[in-house]
Each structure stands twice: as structure tokens, then as C-alpha cells.
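Researcher: Let's do a round of design. I'm pasting the C-alpha cells now; please hold your answer until I've finished.
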């Protein structure tokens, strides 16, 4: 994975708060923006990607515009120390897996579904840092700052467990064992 960016600890958040499903739903909008406010209040730099951030004077100075899937999104993720995921609906979301695939830890805003058997939290992904409130978010940011090894062992473990060729080998081993 790419090395950590130079400078202050930075959190990125790719999210379209301008989408009507979010912009017209105050609870949903607040769910996405409260963690951003908490980071700003704590003087933690943020990079906001996607639509709608430019419409809010508090967030507009941190808005970097939209990014395209592929190399542009990878570069955006890798320009941050961590990626925020604050969704109202589910934590089973591609943003989590994209960030980890780019070698970045995920600050994961807990949802009630996280207590369920099939929760993304229970997948034991190595780079998830869940939080429930402002204090939890700030504690997890500190933990990530202190866990510099996250780009080493956990990333390599994740890559090994989710590598296509490794999965094929495991499938063949199972097939051979039952034949």
C-alpha cells in the first residue's frame, strides 16, 4: 500500500450529502455531518469528497469536489490517514472495503445493525475503528495515529485473506478434500 501522507493526521469522507435522500432528510444529513463537525471542532483536518458539501458554509472550505471510481478514488483515499464511514442505513458498504483495499483504516460510525450476527464488525476486518459518539471518534483517531503498524501486518493479512488467487487455492483445497 501507499505510505502515509505527510503532514497532519487527515480524515477523508467520500459522501454525496447533496443527494435528495440525504439533503431532504434532516436525521440522515445530521448522521453524516455530526462526525465532520466533531473533527472540525477538534482541529482535525478533513477532506470532503462528493456532492453537496459546497452548499454548507461550514463544510465548503474542506470540499475537494467529486472523484471518479478507479485510480482517482484510490489516490483520494491514500491522501488521507483514515476514511470516515457515517451511513444511516448500513455499515455493509463498499466505502469500507475500498478504503481497506487502499490501505487505509476506516472510522466506522456504529449502527444498531452492528450488534447483529451478520454485522460487518463481526467480519474481523483488521482496519475498522468503530465509534458511537464524539469522544469515541477522537479516541479512535488517536488510536490510528499510534497504530502506525496498520499499514503493515493488518493490511497484508487482509490482502492475503481476500486475494483472488488465495481464495481459488482454498476452494480447490476444499474440493480436493471431499473428492
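Researcher: That's everything. Go ahead.
Model: Designed sequence:
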Amino acid at each position: 500500500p501507499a505510505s502515509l501522507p505527510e503532514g497532519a493526521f487527515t480524515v477523508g469522507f467520500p459522501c454525496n450529502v447533496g443527494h435528495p435522500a440525504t439533503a431532504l432528510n434532516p436525521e440522515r444529513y445530521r448522521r453524516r455531518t455530526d462526525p465532520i463537525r466533531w473533527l472540525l471542532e477538534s482541529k482535525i483536518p478533513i477532506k470532503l469528497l462528493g456532492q453537496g458539501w459546497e452548499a454548507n458554509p461550514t463544510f465548503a472550505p474542506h470540499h475537494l469536489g467529486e472523484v471518479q471510481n478507479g485510480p482517482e478514488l484510490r489516490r483520494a483515499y491514500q491522501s488521507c490517514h483514515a476514511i470516515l464511514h457515517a451511513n444511516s442505513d448500513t455499515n455493509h458498504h463498499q466505502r469500507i472495503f475500498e478504503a481497506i483495499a487502499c490501505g487505509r483504516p476506516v472510522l466506522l460510525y456504529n449502527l444498531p445493525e452492528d450488534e447483529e450476527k451478520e454485522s460487518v464488525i463481526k467480519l474481523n476486518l483488521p482496519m475498522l475503528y468503530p465509534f458511537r459518539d464524539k469522544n469515541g471518534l477522537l479516541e479512535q483517531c488517536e488510536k490510528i495515529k499510534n497504530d502506525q503498524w496498520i499499514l503493515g501486518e493488518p493490511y497484508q493479512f487482509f490482502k492475503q485473506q481476500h486475494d483472488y488467487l488465495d481464495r481459488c487455492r482454498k476452494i480447490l483445497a476444499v474440493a480436493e478434500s471431499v473428492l
